[in-house]
Amino acid sequence: MCNNASRSLNIRALEKIMHAPMSFFDTTPMGRVLNRFTKDTDALDNEIAEQLRLFCFGIGNMIGILILCCIYMPYFTIVIPFLFMYAVSSFSYYQSTAREVKRIEGVQRSIVYSTFDEILQGSDTIKLYGNTELFINKNKDQINTMNEAYYLTNALQRFFAVTLHFASGCLNLVVTMLCASNAFPISGASSGLLVSYLVSFSMQLIQSSKAAGQLEQLLNSVERVCEYAVDLPQEASYRTEPPNTPSAENWPIQGSISFRDVCLRYRPALPYVLKNLTIDIKPHEKIGICGRTGAGKSTIMTALPCVV
Ligand SMILES: Nc1ncnc2c1ncn2[C@@H]1O[C@H](COP(=O)(O)OP(=O)(O)OP(=O)(O)O)[C@@H](O)[C@H]1O
Ligand SMILES: [Mg+2]
What we know:
- The chain is mainly alpha-helical.
- It has two domains: 2-231, ABC transporter type 1, transmembrane domain (ABC transporter transmembrane region fold, Up-down Bundle), CATH 1.20.1560.10; 257-306, no CATH class.
- It is built from nine helices and two strands.
- It has a two-stranded antiparallel sheet with strand order 1-2.
- Helix 6 (132-180) runs antiparallel to helix 7.
- The chain is elongated.
- The model has no long low-confidence stretch (mean pLDDT 88).
- The chain binds adenosine-5'-triphosphate and magnesium ion.
- Residues 26, 266, 270, 273, 291, 293-299 line the site of adenosine-5'-triphosphate.
């Protein structure tokens, strides 16, 4: 299911990108587009299914263990809602903090990348001015700041693991005490079965919570690819019949071009670059266009295919 969903999302996103208007490519950095088709697609193809499998596997195991306990010790059912509430509240506490820390780490990481890119591009200038040390130190400082956030991510994971270990340790203790004190009529073999399953409970709890956290982060990738696959603005269809297409009979014999009050802007929100331009270029005439940079010389060429 995941593979099929990922494939169809990817194909739809690619089709939409192929028909996106030029303004989209003017305003979107190429790295962002590449990211959707590399890292995000990889998350869709490989990671989500695996994390979903781990999550379902852990949840299934835990439910099995709890049912086993309830069958042997009916009063154990009372503990389950409290255990559930404890797990959910510590998960949401951990997840809301981890999300913010991850965001800080992401910001720091992109700063490191962009500085590294700048240093690579400007290495000649840096060497020329003898500022190598300065930039090495700058890079080191930024990597340190990024690692501070990365360290926090790990510390948070540890904190979460300890919290869940504590909860399942308490659960183990209670069940073992109940088994040992003969509060319920359970045989020695059944007690052994219960305790041996409960030992794996904490691992399952941590594994499925981790998988749930990962899933939430990976769903961001789905959201990003979906944004391209569904919401991307589309340009006009490739083939439209212009109102007065030159046909074989009225195809111009002379290569003359005339602009009459041509106005052109690159996007609706931008000011006009060409304002009421009127020129006549006669056949065989050679034309030179002068103007300062940004005056709109290249734009005249851009406007040519649009003029009919
Ligand atoms: N793709 C684009 N999207 C938005 N604005 C643009 C785009 N291309 C050019 N412009 C704007 O249109 C104006 C004219 O640009 P144009 O490239 O035609 O100038 P030019 O005369 O060819 O300059 P140059 O001498 O540097 O080649 C500039 O203000 C520029 O910022
Ligand atoms: Mg130009």
